[in-house]
Amino acid sequence: MVELIFYEEVGAHHVAVLEVRDARELVSWLVEFFAQKGFDVSEQMEQFSQAEEILADYVERGYRYFTVDVVAIRPDEAASTEPLAYVFECGCVYYPLYISTVAKGHTSVRLFVLAEGWLRREDVRKAGLTLAIEDELGAEEVERVSEDIYGLLGARGAKLTVLTYDGPIELLKTDLEAQIGPSLSKVLNQAQLTAFSSVSVALIVLPSIHVRGKPRKADADVVVAFIASLLALLSLLCLSPVLMVLVNPPYVYVGHYLMSGYGPWPFYIFMLAASASMALTLLLSAGGERARLPLAICLLVLLGSLFFVLGATFMLPFPLNLLATYLMVGTCPMAMAALVLVLSYSAPKRPPDLAITG
Fold it and tell me: What is the pLDDT of residues 44-84, one digit of tens each?
């Protein structure tokens, strides 16, 4: 059964809305509809036969309403048409993809979704799409994009999800049927920021308590390492606005070419390294040892943070881009070494066993 619900000519569009309960009857209706519009589709009957299987799948899944849009353009002139907006109630964010497999070849999809929240990643992956960008738009930005969308979402603004696909059309085996869910990136970024901040504070506070009341050595290398540690921590404090930008939207998952593509991880590494070097300097000053390792770490942090800011703002030329990456990677094992030494020096020392002989 096929029932014509709506038909209207809108500019160059000849739009029909159908309620369908039988895919075979829909194919017959389409062939007749195109014939009435003067199209000879006798050579496309095999394609219509393939379409019947796809349409039957939609009907079985409960999708009973279909639209047919024939666009009338003159072949002897270039032209563009106004896009149509389809408004319908749905329990999810829906976009048809499987219907496109009627055609063959390669396709590119760029899908911009504005909703009350970001889409669940598992639903995006199920549709065969790639998550490209997650961002937040204010109410004014949404209104500039579309007054209709602004009317739907109200003054709360919207979450933007950008999805992409590049590949063979035949691999699009299902539609996008996505639910709204929390952004995994935002949750992870907030958790990472809390964890690294807590560890960095603990690295400075606990050794300070450990060496309190103990005599300290004020050799030149200890003083320089202490000053370098303070400068490194101060530089990271000045970089905190950059960190806030990196841990908040937009989250870009494809097409990185700046240092910002590493996200907040360089900042976390430098923060951990600077805190560990400060803690190690405090412990070494109380133990009468030299502070060359924390001094080297702090110099790496200062230099690395400078390149991090430059790389996050500009596209560094070769070989500065490699140097920035090597500084970040090289600081990581040194920070781990300093952390191990801090834990070693901070561990309670076991008194030596006394042997009594007689």
Answer: 888 888 888 999 999 999 999 999 888 877 666 666 677 88
